Amino acid sequence: MAAAALLRRIPAARAPPTALMAARTISDSTAPLTIETSVPFTSHIVDPPSRDVTTTPAELLTFFRDMSLMRRMEIAADSLYKAKLIRGFCHLYDGQEAVAVGMEAAITRSDSIITAYRDHCIYLARGGDLVSAFAELMGRQAGCSRGKGGSMHFYKKDANFYGGHGIVGAQVPLGCGLAFAQKYRKEETATFALYGDGAANQGQLFEALNISALWKLPSILVCENNHYGMGTAEWRAAKSPAYYKRGDYVPGLKVDGMDVLAVKQACKFAKEHAVANGPIVLEMDTYRYHGHSMSDPGSTYRTRDEISGVRQERDPIERVRKLILAHDLATPAELKDTEKEIRKEVDDAIAKAKVSVAFSVLFLVSL
Amino acid sequence: MPMATASSSLHGTAAALHGVGAAASSKPRSAAPVARSVRVAAAARGSGSARARGGMVARAAVAANAVAAAESKSGGHELLLFEALREALIEEMKADPTVCVFGEDVGHYGGSYKVTKGLAEMFGDLRVLDTPIAENSFTGMGVGAAMKGLRPIVEGMNMGFLLLAYNQISNNCGMLHYTSGGQFKIPIVIRGPGGVGRQLGAEHSQRLESYFQSIPGLQMVACSTPYNAKGLMKAAIRSENPVVLFEHVLLYNLKEKIPDEEYICCLEEAEMVRPGEHVTILTYSRMRYHVMQAAKTLVNKGYDPEVIDIRSLKPFDLHTIGNSIKKTHRVLIVEECMRTGGIGASLRSSIIDNFWDYLDAPIMCLSSQDVPTPYAAPLEDATVVQPAQIVAAVEQICQ
């Protein structure tokens, strides 16, 4: 196929290793492709979107690249933490990449995103760069929060990424406040407020949802359900773990959070709904490979078989790799090359961050 | 009891307040303790505002004999404290479309203390928002809206209810500017009535300034007269920092003549209420009136107390306070907070750190009792500082 021949030039046409996440110029081909989501959407008091998702070869390759970059960053963070270059709390996102990447594909930088502490990859998805991320994790001045925040406090104001919050649940009212400002200014944009299955039980979510529904705010509450609130399985913390139904009078959608195309479709649907009608709840069925944080081995409350089972059957990157190969959009070798480039990109960023300036105490009270 | 002659004593206090202040550059927020007063720019305002306010002056807290209203070219107008707050809100909301108000019953009901009466009709339901009883979330929403460039004013119907929003106030409101490496400003105003009222019961008689004072990144002021209520409210709304404005349940009906022209009060400045020589009495909010009542008795007994309404609870105006201590060498703090961990405790500590060498006597601090405020009137009266105790304390200090 002409398209395939075009695509095989991808390695040469690919953006240089220092490209930021925002540069989506990996492939020329924007010929539409329709792919079915892994499972249909389950919905609550709303008609679900179709499970046929429109994408393009370029987009799929971008998905592969972006998710692989995120995966690599998180694994590198693991090593840095064990080497004591990252201290304190460090919550890794590997396994959940499809949520960050799919969401970004459905929206614009004028829409807002806010999340809790598992924020490194969302920062990247919003256009953050690797050096700032690693520098922040290592507490350097070049960090995205100038080293003042740490792992749990990544923000990117110019990309409408509002963090980065340590006390879970509190970010949801903040998110509804962002949505309020969007409505106040008649912006026609929406806010995605992310939280986990643990924080889903916080009362302030219901308060915020009630207010959002009353005032018809463009709030989208996204439950990243990775099935464990730290060490507590969802069934032990929630009488009703059907998080997408928790909105009661607010519609909801349950999404396979390991399927980046499903995430994209759901977020697109949610944004249209929120801007026109007010709040909606999305539940992303996802999974984290690491424990809750680096202090948690992640194996005392779940079996290694479960973890490896998900990795084998539902890994978001592998799903996209299979799609790319099945549709002949790249060869296995090309994808491997991409992964090698990504590894190098991450290693280079770490090297840069390692030598970046640390702090003197003079900076304690000044910015 | 103190409130009956409030309006007449206010004219006296208003007279002492006003001198011409100097405009100066607005400074970015500093967390380090500073022994200097900071003046708000007369004309400048934070980014996002298109207003130029030529001709308006931030009035410094200087003892003077001129009466504020007499300085006012058009004679001034008399109003009650809650009306002064409302006037400030109306002026700021007219001038800046990003200013909005969140709170319970602030809109259609007009506000439980009438501070927002009529605002919903004037500005509409999107700018004056009736919230459900959900302090945690609507305070958080205020912070989120501020992150995105609006200037919300969040009302706690009673300050005590804001304890439900403590996490939002502390971790988000106070800290986001810092943890984001300066990316976000939170120009929010959190306000509401607090303090011991008239037999309102323990849970409705709280002094939250004790609890909030440690929150890094938060600024706190307490108003006590119609004049400073309007001036502080305007300044708080214009500030790029999160400001908590403490009003008092018993002071809303104080009457005073305030200038017709526009003015603001400097957030970080204390107010010289009565200059004197013998002892520096530091107070704020309702206790100011107990102090002034005690001052009458003290003057009759031959004492000359200097009374300063500290107004700025965080940061303290150590410049004004220090100058006073250097003159009188004796300090009495009169506060409504409880003895443990109140503003008085922090102020005492600050004075010891900064002005130890100027003290001729130990600092005395009169505070409320460490008890939940009882319902029965005599007991309630006994929990707060009364003028007789203030007189006795000054006599003791000045021995």
From TrEMBL, chain A:
A Pfam short name: E1_dh
Required cofactor(s): Mg(2+); thiamine diphosphate
InterPro entries in UniProt: DH_E1, PDH_E1_Alpha_Subunit, Pyrv_DH_E1_asu_subgrp-y
Domain Dehydrogenase E1 component, first and last residues per copy: 66-354
Reactions that this protein is recorded to catalyse: N(6)-[(R)-lipoyl]-L-lysyl-[protein] + pyruvate + H(+) = N(6)-[(R)-S(8)-acetyldihydrolipoyl]-L-lysyl-[protein] + CO2
Enzyme Commission no: 1.2.4.1
Molecular function GO labels: pyruvate dehydrogenase (acetyl-transferring) activity
GO biological process, one term: pyruvate decarboxylation to acetyl-CoA
Subunit text: Tetramer of 2 alpha and 2 beta subunits.
Database matches in PANTHER family: PYRUVATE DEHYDROGENASE E1 COMPONENT SUBUNIT ALPHA, PYRUVATE DEHYDROGENASE E1 COMPONENT, ALPHA SUBUNIT BACTERIAL AND ORGANELLAR
Protein name: Pyruvate dehydrogenase E1 component subunit alpha
Source species of the chain: Zizania palustris (Northern wild rice)
TrEMBL record, chain B:
Example of a GO MF term: pyruvate dehydrogenase (acetyl-transferring) activity
Keywords: Chloroplast, Metal-binding, Oxidoreductase, Plastid, Potassium, Pyruvate, Thiamine pyrophosphate, Transit peptide
EC numbers for this chain: 1.2.4.1
Residue intervals of the Transketolase-like pyrimidine-binding domain: 79-254
Recorded GO CC terms: chloroplast
Domain of life the protein comes from: Eukaryota
Catalytic reactions of this protein: N(6)-[(R)-lipoyl]-L-lysyl-[protein] + pyruvate + H(+) = N(6)-[(R)-S(8)-acetyldihydrolipoyl]-L-lysyl-[protein] + CO2
Cofactors named for this entry: thiamine diphosphate
Main location: plastid
A Pfam family this chain is assigned to: Transket_pyr
Enzyme class: oxidoreductase
Localization in the cell: Plastid, Chloroplast
Complex formation: Tetramer of 2 alpha and 2 beta subunits.
Function, as annotated: The pyruvate dehydrogenase complex catalyzes the overall conversion of pyruvate to acetyl-CoA and CO(2). It contains multiple copies of three enzymatic components: pyruvate dehydrogenase (E1), dihydrolipoamide acetyltransferase (E2) and lipoamide dehydrogenase (E3).
UniProt protein name: pyruvate dehydrogenase (acetyl-transferring)
